[in-house]
Amino acid sequence: MNEFLRLLRYAAPYRGQLTVALLAMVLYAAGSALLVYLLKPILDKVLIAQQQVSQVAILLLVAYFLKGLGGYVSGYLMTQVGQRVVMDLRNQLFGHILGQSAAFFSRRT
Length: 109
Prior knowledge:
This protein is an all-alpha fold. The chain has one domain (about 1-105). The protein has 5 helices and no strands. The chain has helices spanning about 1-10, 15-35, 40-50, 55-100, 100-105. The protein is rod-shaped and about 85 Å long.
């Protein structure tokens, strides 16, 4: 757990992007919940009674749009933050290695 918290500090500069990614995940969840909510009207009104076809179709499109947008934005931002954290870690390690003395490099080949 301690290592996780240490790594989490490197993500602190990207809090804004992580917050937007979290909101996009909520949007994805809302789209998924809307799809589940639409199952009853689809089965009861659209397939059996042939009523409200256009309304349910529009809601289906909205639900899939929300899912797609939320999935894309959250995936993109989480990947971007992950890559930037790795880059920050590599840059810090590289700077640390370059800051070593000549004696350090003569002792370790």
